[in-house]
Amino acid sequence: MALHRPTVEVVPEKEWRRLKKLTKFEEKGYRAGYKMIAGIDEAGRGPLAGPVFAAACILPRKLLIPGVDDCKKLLPAKREAVFKSLVNHPEIIYGIGMVEHDVIDTINIFQATIQAMLLAVAQLRIKPEFLLVDGLSLPHTDIPCEKIVKGDELCLSIAAASVIAKVSRDNYMLAMHEKYPQYGFDKHKGYGTEKHLAALKLHGPSPIHRLSFKSVLPVEEEALV
Predict the structure, then answer these.
(1) pLDDT level of residue 219 (50, 70, 90 thresholds)
(2) Rounded to two decimals, what is the model's pTM?
(3) Does some domain include residue 67?
(4) Range of the domain at 139
């Protein structure tokens, strides 16, 4: 199968072999007769503040973008570069879903993650025929899905979605840092680091903290919410 290779840079053959290996789940779908296959992943299930994001990404069958990988394996500068390569490519279709902190508090983070994923699929400009989902059995009403454990490590379109979701959420939290600089959201993006917990103890929760998360409120305050 011919591969599209960028003309502006020379990519080592090892990288192309790595990327091609990650297409095995998509290729399985193509052989089953599906043409539009979307990978789906989330970012922000664990933080104490901010929304949960999800992304859905449809990659053209013969297109491999250098550097695409599980977002957790990429340093921030590399992740940002891969993100730009994905979202600026005219042949790549992607959608982003976001569910706010107050909804997370109401329906729980698991249900909010599913809702964000469904929103991401709905944002795609072309409806996919098959969904590859990282770690979840997505209950979509009319699109078949496959759950892939550690999909962001094993599946190319899920890895691409992980980068889009992660960078999109990080950018959101950078904007929140401008509103609430005392919490250091620019550093930890809402995760429960030692400095974040210290800021919570000093300032109390911000308007975007998830009050249903145990680390956000002391026990005596939690009982009053």
Answers:
(1) very low
(2) 0.91
(3) yes
(4) 13-179
